[in-house]
Design goal:
CATH architecture of the largest domain: 3-Layer(aba) Sandwich
Strand order of the largest sheet: 3-2-1-13-14
Number of domains: 4
Number of helices: 20
Largest sheet: 5 strands, parallel
CATH topology of the largest domain: Rossmann fold
Oligomer: single chain
Structural class: alpha+beta
CATH class of the largest domain: Alpha Beta
Radius of gyration: 32 Å
Number of strands: 25
Length: about 675
């Protein structure tokens, strides 16, 4: 439905989970596009509320707390602050950013459950679940580890195997163990309350499949798949000590399941922001509700949460759109918090101070709107240097510098000609296309069109050549630069949703104290006689060493993860003793070592073997980049191998190395100096 049919817009963002910081995948999927949309609506003077908050309940938080020897509250307090501060520094313009451990949220979630319970909306079911007799508690899926029945990974969790990616139930595991005590759990009966989603299947089918065909293909398609399979009852409680307690006397020791608890956070956070008028944001037909989420949350926001609202009744409105992005990968690999394969927002802000807009720009330009996309540091550098610096920053800098050079920074009167009118017409057309793209949640396209305005400015300056015109006609020069300054004003507005920090600096320079979307394309934004400020360079080049630092960090994370997950290779089949004794292992001293020409992996060793000097070629060059440093070291080699030629060099043996968990090789050497030629026994 068109935005113009609504009086106000409520924008919610998926609640980030507080067992760690947020990374670029979260930003690209949810928070940057939500902020772009909210800023765009505000520039159009529409009533809007951007609602956010932290999701602070659930098993991963308790696991992290147990591992660190602290309380779950300590964990959520730490990461809530990191996440909230990082969002603020990146310019995510939340009207409120709260949390699900707040008193108002606990009260709201408890009341929601109680109303559904009192109205008979739940069903009760008993089931057999794993129980740790030593810890005297039921085990949530993540509290159980064991062997995956599919790939036989011995460290699979009770909900998923992180090696093969298969979804599991804890009872599927082979040889399950409690993550709390290490004991083998037993099956024990427990009772829980379920929301029968099947009761709302037809209503959901009509609401989504018939009335929201405009939703993104990935959202619509995933919903249709779930509905076609048939919905099943879903537990809303679980046996756990951390969470919102189930408000029933018979439910001691149980909490609301986090999937039920968390989306109610949108309502409780709105209550906290608008304690007197929150209902008009949730229950008025004049309010448009937009849920920004990642694709892993589609089912919860399009099927489960709407079913909860249907069950509750009392006029709760359903979302008008749920613009979900696909996943953002990192350097060709899936982002993984457990493997530390991520670009963390708080670390980016530390490493690239003052470059919030660069990250916002790159994540929007490469947004995974229709398919999974890949973030690379090379692309980050290229987009900054070739687009932000060379196109947008270049145009604004040229316009301001030329005006300072010829007119001491004062805007002059203008007599616009066909060239200027064509420029303003092009900008006006681009504005309409940007608006249409933003209204329909095509943020990547909107950003490209906004950058086309800056491209039009550069083209205009190249064609009018004010630096040449100034030699003979200062009146015409004044007009050209006036038009360029007016375009700078349009750029300050059109980029405000995307690059708010740059926009604020440019608006202050012009100056334009109050920005409005209807300013774009106007040619009277900066009046003659205005003395312009100096914003300096809006963007600066990012150098190779800055990028290499980030690549090195990722490489280190990959090495550490390899070490953490390393398991020794299975033992080779037995060989008889006589065969082993035939191998003549000896100690040699390295006399010379150099890389083999035109062979990146090979080193040529000259070794003192106690009787003569022998040459051995070994494929370890990548692990020893400074071969001369090996001179004087001792190595273990097999002396009685047949000679073979490698790159024209006769190799007389094999040097032994050990392969480490990170894939690197370490030369085998005696622990104390040995006589060259000494046999290894």
């Amino acid at each position: 439905m068109s935005q113009s049919n609504f009086k106000r817009t409520l924008i919610t963002t998926a609640l980030p989970y507080t067992n760690g910081p947020v990374h670029i995948g979260h930003l690209a999927g949810v928070y940057v596009p939500a902020d772009i949309y909210a800023r765009y609506l505000r520039l159009n003077h529409r009533e809007v509320a951007l609602i956010g908050g932290s999701d602070e309940h659930g098993v991963p938080i308790t696991l992290k707390a147990r591992a660190e020897g602290v309380t779950p509250q300590d964990i959520v307090d730490r990461y809530h602050k990191i996440i909230k501060d990082s969002f603020e520094e990146l310019g995510i313009s939340f009207d409120i950013y709260s949390r699900t451990t707040s008193k108002i949220h606990e009260a709201t979630a408890s009341e929601f459950f109680t109303r559904l319970y009192d109205n008979g909306k739940f069903i009760e079911q008993t089931s057999m679940q794993l129980y740790d007799e030593k810890a005297d508690q039921f085990l949530a899926d993540r509290y159980v580890t064991g062997e995956c029945p599919h790939c036989h990974n011995p460290k699979a969790y009770g909900d998923q195997c992180e090696v093969c990616g298969t979804s599991l139930n804890a009872t599927d595991l082979i040889n399950p163990r409690s993550a709390i005590t290490g004991n083998t759990p037993v099956l024990k009966e427990t009772k829980h309350w379920f929301l029968p989603l099947d009761r709302y299947e037809q209503a959901l089918r009509h609401w989504i499949l018939d009335t929201h065909t405009e939703w993104r293909t990935n959202v619509y398609g995933q919903c249709k798949s779930w509905l076609d399979l048939g919905l099943q009852p879903r537990a809303v409680t679980r046996d756990l000590s951390w969470g919102v307690p189930v408000p029933l006397k018979e439910a001691a020791g149980k909490v609301l399941y986090v999937w039920f608890d968390a989306p109610i956070g949108y309502i409780s956070n709105t209550k906290e922001l608008f304690p007197e008028t929150w209902e008009q944001w949730w229950k008025s037909p004049e309010t448009r509700i937009i849920n920004f989420i990642g694709k892993d949350n589609i089912v919860f926001h399009c099927i489960v949460f709407p079913a909860m609202l249907m069950a509750y009744g009392d006029g709760f409105q359903l979302p008008d759109n749920v613009p979900s992005n696909e996943f953002l990968n990192l350097e060709g690999d899936k982002i993984s918090t457990s493997r530390n394969w991520a670009v963390w927002l708080h670390e980016y802000l530390r490493d690239f101070p003052g470059k919030q807009d660069v990250l916002r720009y790159v994540l929007t330009a490469n947004a995974p709107e229709t398919k999974d996309n890949d973030f690379t540091w090379a692309d980050f550098q290229t987009r900054n240097n070739s687009e932000l610096v060379a196109i947008l920053g270049n145009f604004v800098n040229r316009a301001l510098v030329l005006n300072r050079k010829y007119f001491d920074g004062k805007v002059q009167e203008a007599s616009f000609t066909e060239a200027e009118n064509n420029l303003f017409k092009e900008v006006a057309e681009l504005k309409e296309r940007v608006s249409q793209a933003l209204e329909t949640f095509h943020f990547r396209e909107a950003l490209k069109l906004a950058m086309d305005m800056a491209r039009a400015g550069n083209k205009y300056l190249q064609e009018t050549e004010p630096w040449k015109v100034a030699k003979t006609d200062m009146t015409r020069t004044a007009t050209i630069l006036n038009a360029a300054i007016q375009l700078c004003g349009s750029l300050a507005v059109v980029f405000e949703p995307f690059l708010p920090f740059m926009s604020a600096r440019l608006a202050e320079t012009l100056p334009m104290p109050q920005l409005s979307w209807d300013m774009i394309g106007r040619f009277d934004l900066v009046l003659p006689g205005t003395v312009l400020g100096d914003p300096g360079l809006l963007f600066e080049k990012i150098e190779d060493d800055q990028i290499q630092k980030q690549l090195d960090r990722l490489a280190q994370a990959k090495r550490e993860n390899m070490i953490k997950s390393w398991q020794p290779e299975p033992q080779q089949p037995d060989v008889d003793f006589d065969t082993v004794m035939k191998a003549d292992l000896r100690v040699g001293t390295v006399l010379k070592c150099a890389k083999v020409k035109k062979a990146d992996k090979l080193l040529e060793f000259l070794i003192d073997d106690g009787m003569e000097k022998r040459t051995i070629v070994s494929g370890i060059a990548q692990h020893y980049p400074d071969p001369e440093a090996l001179v004087g070291k001792q190595v273990v080699f097999i002396a009685n191998l047949p000679e073979r030629k490698l790159k024209g060099i006769t190799s007389q043996g094999m040097i032994l190395s050990a392969m480490n968990a990170d894939g690197s090789l370490t030369l085998i050497a005696p622990s104390a100096p040995a006589t060259p030629g000494a046999q290894v026994k």
